[in-house]
Amino acid sequence: MLRRSLLTTAVALVTGTLTPTIPATAGSDPVAFINSLGNQYQIVARNPSAAQRLAGFRQLFRENFDVPGLGRFVLGRCARILNSSEQQEFLALFETYVAYTYSDRLSEFADGGIPRVTGSRLDADGTIVSSEVIRGHTVRPIKVDWRLTGRDGAYKISDVIVDGLSMAVDGRSQLEGVAERNGERPQAILAVMRQETANAVLRQIAP
């Protein structure tokens, strides 16, 4: 349901440490925040244990991404279709889906992919930190912008924009397509998300 190529690139570029992380405070340097995540990435990406990579990534995702905000944005107008309990189920499935889908892909980026920060700027929703990522033998760097917002006294990543394509906007567009193809029925939307999450879990535990 969610485009794996974009989300894999966006999320795997900022993987976290297996030990408890300390989120950067909202008053600290946003560039330092992204640099720290990039450095921590190497630790979890090189761990040979899939279970430990998953645990480390889920911890990073919860602590450094605005999971509720990102999930609500992806839900978009579908929030009007789902009641409160259905929205909560969607958000839980959303977190699990992302964690399981991309934790095992981290090892693919173990030999590179650390963002090189090129600048930062303020925008209406917070701060955007611009970076470039060189993976393997690619000639052209991948341009990655990180949208940061202050939440509960710490920076949170609310969107990742890869070569101009927003992870959040892309996810919302795909979910709206699912809703339209299924007559905007709440249970159909949740059924698709449950199936995608189940498939992600099976891929993780498959030998």
Task: Please give the share of residues in helix.
Answer: 40-55%
Uncertain ranges: 2-27
Question: Could you name the CATH class?
Answer: Alpha Beta
The helix-and-strand class reads alpha+beta
Q: How many distinct beta strands? A: 5
Order of helices and strands: HHHHHEEEEEHH
- Biggest sheet descriptor: 5 strands, antiparallel
The CATH topology turns out to be Nuclear Transport Factor 2, Chain: A
The DSSP helix count reads: 7
Write the layout of secondary structure elements.
Blueprint: H1 4-12, H2 30-45, H3 50-64, H4 67-75, H5 84-103, E1 116-123, E2 126-133, E3 142-151, E4 154-162, E5 165-166, H6 167-181, H7 186-205
How does this model look, in words?
With 207 residues, this protein is of the alpha+beta class. The protein has a single domain (4-205), classed as Nuclear Transport Factor 2, Chain: A, CATH 3.10.450. 50% of the residues lie in helices and 18% in strands. The chain has helices spanning 4-12, 30-45, 50-64, 67-75, 84-103, 167-181, 186-205; strands at residues 116-123, 126-133, 142-151, 154-162, 165-166. It has a five-stranded antiparallel β-sheet. β1 (116-123) and β2 form a beta hairpin. α4 packs across α6 (167-181). The longest helix is centred in the middle third of the chain and has 20 residues, at 84-103. 34% of the residues are buried. The model is unreliable at 2-27 (pLDDT under 50).
